[in-house]
Amino acid sequence: LDDAGVCSAAELVLLRVAPTPFRVGLSHLVGTTIGESERAAVAESLAGIDPEDDIEVSGSYRRRVAVTLALRALDDAHEEASATA
To answer: Between the N and C ends of the chain, which has fewer C-beta atoms within 10 Å?
Structure first.
């Protein structure tokens, strides 16, 4: 975040939802103050991932967890950036 609380850069990579690390496109966050509509856009961008089932867990479970953890990571990063801005 810049001094005005506007996002200047954002990156997120998820593991175990695809055969290789999955980079989540967050360019839509740059230039925003990251509110509820931006969080919803992040969740929506993850709706299209299609993890495979395996012996440990189903793909649908991985998708739900990916969305939850991505939003938590976004919230944590935003909180940390806000504290240092």
So the answer is: C
The SS3 call for residue 28 is: helix
Query: Taking a C-beta distance cutoff of 8 angstroms, is the pair 53, 62 a contact?
Result: no
- C-alpha distances (whole Å) from 34 to each of 15, 54, 73, 83 are 23, 35, 13, 15
Compute the residue count for the chain.
Answer: 85
DSSP β-ladder status, 22-24 and 12-14: antiparallel
As beta bridge partners, residue 23 has 13
Q: For residue range 20-71, what is the model confidence (pLDDT) as tens digits? A: 898 988 899 999 999 999 999 999 988 888 898 989 899 999 999 999 999 9
What is the distance between the alpha carbons of residues 39 and 29, in angstroms, rounded to a whole number?
9
Cα(81)–Cα(40) distance, rounded to whole angstroms?
20
Helices (H), the chain: 36-46, 59-84
